[in-house]
Amino acid sequence: MEMDECSPSGTSSGYCRTNSTFSDSCSSDTNSPVSLPPTLTSHFQPTLSRFHNPQNQYHKPTHLEIEMMKERFSKLLLGEDMSGGGKGVSTAVTVSNAITNLYVSVFGQHQRLEPLYPDKKRMWKREMTCLLSVCDYIVEFVPASQNLQNRPSMEMMISQPRSDIDINLPALIKLDALLIEVLDSFQETEFWYEEEESMSRNSGSRSFQGPPQPQRKWWLPLPCVPAGGLSDTAKKHLRQKRDSANQIHKAAMAINSSILSDMTIPLSYIASLPKSGRTSVGDTIYRYMISTSRFSPEYLLDCLNISSEHEALELADRIEASMFTWRQKACSNYPKSSWETVKEHMEGDKNVVLAERAELLLFGLKKRFPELAQTTLDTSKIQYNKDVGQAILESYSRVLEGLAFNIVGWTEDVLFVDKSMTNQQEQC
Predict the structure, then answer these.
(1) What is the distance between the alpha carbons of residues 9 and 216, in angstroms, rounded to a whole number?
(2) Total structural domains in the chain?
(3) Tell me, what's the pLDDT at 271?
(4) How far apart are CA 33 and CA 29, in angstroms?
(5) C-beta of residue 388 within 8 angstroms of C-beta of residue 136
(6) Taking residues 191-195, what's their average pLDDT?
(7) How many CB atoms lie within 10 A of CB 346?
(8) 152 and 204: one domain?
(9) Measured between alpha carbons, how far is 169 from 258 in angstroms, rounded to an integer?
(10) Cα-based angle 200, 206, 211 (whole degrees, multiple of 5)
(11) pLDDT tens by residue, 34-78
């Protein structure tokens, strides 16, 4: 079930498979059941062409790869309901889960700065290409005039890629390629990795692993550097790739936030909202939000002294719920208007002011905790989303955001170890 544009839904402040043979059959204009009449079809570049790298040699799939693709393609058609009884999840959720699972299969065990194994890289490109090909058939119709010889111009409807897909999908494909390039650039490095057990056995080797980092994940391999430290060239390369991955992370996060904000808010989430925003956000935060004339979200967050991501996520859920409660009350007199329109008509209204301040507080909290998990609202949107295009864009941007974040962390781990070794040498 979906909401109207207003109510409180106006605006809102943990990866697909198959081979090119399926793509070829799907793109046939003559045999495809979804093909359009020639007069209504516009010429736009398919996703497959944008994603395909013509420099790569054709890789003939093995029998195991073909069987794996058949299995995943069947799960997509069945909606993950292996009984075949039609009780599976929606197509949008199935595609989203497929992209997430593919990401885990390819990158789940990749935990260091080094190129992907060739078979993993082929698997990622091949199966993502097939899943993204769905976007080639998600179009919108727009009027256009056609000049005919010796006749007056005729107006007709032509198809073009849907605007959100046409804007965001090429950007995500580019970000994907850039991240693979970042990993490929660490083909030959001055540092290496060791597991903790091998480190304890080789503690007398002429290398340095550095002191333990605060909040370090114990299951990740530790980077090691030579006794003399990394060269200036190696450190410069690491910093450049870290900065590049950081920019990619910001871009993927921005796309993901934009797609999530455009998704329809499920009625189940609206039904679960508290009757009072004050009850949800708490008396302490509410008193500050309503009593001060110059609201400062940063000052309020400093006063709250949030010590963990778990506390931050719980607070984000409460703030978001109160924000939509206040929006819902403000929209009661304008049920068919967007939130932006309501704000213009009711400027200065208490519920509008509180909703705007809650949005600012939520934005400041997410900025302070950039790796914060998805809120209850975000997960509800993904779970109940029916739009396949939005599902592809959201899941694709989410997994790229996670990969970029990991690469930034890996480069900082190596630079931390090198800096620790340099400091130790200076003290000797």
Answers:
(1) 39
(2) 2
(3) 92
(4) 9
(5) no
(6) 86
(7) 16
(8) no
(9) 13
(10) 55
(11) 333 333 334 445 544 444 444 445 566 677 777 777 777 777 777
Same domain, 200 and 110: no
Q: Are 147 and 255 contained in the same domain?
A: no
**Cα(216)–Cα(228) distance, integer angstroms:** 24
Residues 142 and 229 in one domain: no
- Is 157 in the same domain as 198? no
Per the structure, the complete domain to which residue 415 belongs is given by 193-427
Is the separation of the CB atoms in 259 and 390 below 8 Å? yes
Question: Which is nearest to 213 in space by CA: 421, 8, 413?
Answer: 413
Tell me what pLDDT residue 301 has. 92
Q: What is the pLDDT of residue 102?
A: 94
- What are the pLDDT digits (tens) for 339-348? 788 887 787 7
**Average pLDDT of the residues of the chain:** 80
Q: Do both 135 and 234 map to the same domain?
A: no
pLDDT at 114: 94
At 280, list the tokens. 């949800």
Helix axes 118-132, 91-107, angle to 10 degrees: 170
- Three-state SS for the chain is CCCCCCHHHCCCCCCCCCCHHHHHHHCCCCCCCCCCCHHHCCCCCCHHHHHCCCCCCCCCCCHHHHHHHHHHHHHHHHCCCCCCCCCCCCHHHHHHHHHHHHHHHHHCCCCCCCCCCHHHHHHHHHHHHHHHHHHHHCEEEEEEEECCCCCCCEEEEEEEECHHHHHHHHHHHHHHHHHHHHHHCCCCCCCEEECHHHHHHCCCCCEECCCCCCCCCCCCCEEEEECCCCCHHHHHHHHHHHHHHHHHHHHHHHHHHHHHHHCCCCHHHHHCCCCCHHHHHCHHHHHHHHHCCCCCHHHHHHHHCCCCHHHHHHHHHHHHHHHHHHHHHHHHHCCCCCHHHHHHHCCCCHHHHHHHHHHHHHHHHHHHCCCCCCCHHHHHHHHHCCCHHHHHHHHHHHHHHHHHHHHHHHHHHHHHHHHHHHHHHHHC
For the CA atoms of 321, 326, 332, 336, what is the dihedral angle to 10 degrees? Answer: -60
Nearest CA to 52 out of 225, 187, 168, 173 is that of: 173
**Structure confidence at residue 321 (pLDDT):** 94
Query: Tens digit of pLDDT for each residue in 124-154?
Result: 999 999 899 989 999 888 888 877 777 777 8
What is the rounded distance in angstroms from the CA atom of residue 340 to the CA atom of residue 363? 18
Tokens of 382: 């993904």
